[in-house]
Amino acid sequence: MTLREQVEQDFHRRFGAAPTAVVRAPGRVNLIGEHTDYNDGFVLPIAIDREVWIALRPREDGRVVVHSLDYSASLSFEIGPLSRVGTEWGEYLKGVAWVLREAGHTLKGWEGVMGGNVPRGAGLSSSAAVELATERAFATVSGLAWQPATMALLGQRVENQWMGLHTGIMDQMIVAGGREGHALLIDCRDLSLQPVPLPAGAVVVVLDTGTRRGLVDSAYNERRSQCEAAARFFGVKALRDVDVQTFTKREQELDPLVRRRARHVITENDRTLRAADAMRAGDLQQLGRLMDASHDSLRDDFEVTNEALNTIVLLARAEPGCFGARMTGAGFGGCAVALVAPGQAEAFVQSVHAKYTQATGNTPQCYVCQAAEGTSVV
Ligand code: GAF
After folding, report:
1. How many CA atoms, within 13 angstroms, populate the side-chain half-sphere of residue 58?
2. What is the pLDDT of residues 270-308, one digit of tens each?
3. Which residues have C-beta atoms less than 6 Å from ligand 1?
């Protein structure tokens, strides 16, 4: 049974009728442009065919009642002044109600069933998928206009101000605005998007190391502060405003740690723009080389990889048909992404799975994914 069928069936069982709407929001894999979004830089993610689904219908009493299939738990709250009580899954839904009201919207209540298959804490944006699916549910029952960038910014506010995580805008932008069959080159300063078709000569393979990040928030915030220190040194608003040449001229004046952090971001922005060009030109060798260089920079300069990510990336690169591989998302665990020739993808997945299991004792999840459409009502 598909996820859609599961949430619809469970809805029927709980509420005694068919849902009046079904909404979905995808997870994402970032192909390149890591830790650049909060530096006003460039990213090149795809929305993937791993999703969060909600089957729902409006309620007349101003309450939201949701059952989560994944947590086998229900949540019920009244739309009105809300307070945050923890970090549970339900806080994302309450946070969305809070942010939409803060933005001046009048919300109607609804009841629904939610289920998803975006692995949690794996760097595939399961939380942005929950945020955007919930926004779409509220928008559907309350008649709100759906403008992806506006909704992405509100989703980011939930993350930043309700959940207390100081993340950038990439995840919500791609989850809201993804295009089937395309990556999106996103300018994280002005939020403009350029869809770039995925070349037919490659498929995207997710390699989940099975390791999960710990203590990421503090390490993530520390990286942000180091980037801000570097921007102050160069006298610019964000590292986006420093090009590779300017950096090379003055890098010796920087504190060595801040220098490495800045070098990653500045070269990564450059790689991301070149990667989009390579993708447009169908130059998969070049795209793969840039992905490899991105990983090495995240490992050596930005220091956000772990042993498992470094191992799976090296194993992937050694396989026939692999153009390039790198970690994806915030790092410190979770997933890598590889670009692989379609005819060799099956053998690639089997071989990386076996070799990684043997090398680390961890069982990875390796699968080909498709570039999916952003958040939608079906
Ligand atoms: C996480 C954050 F949520 C994003 O905003 C981004 O910074 C990413 O890490 C690193 O590129 O997914």
Report:
1. 9
2. 999 999 999 999 999 999 999 999 999 999 999 999 999
3. 34-35, 37-38, 167-168, 170-171, 329-330
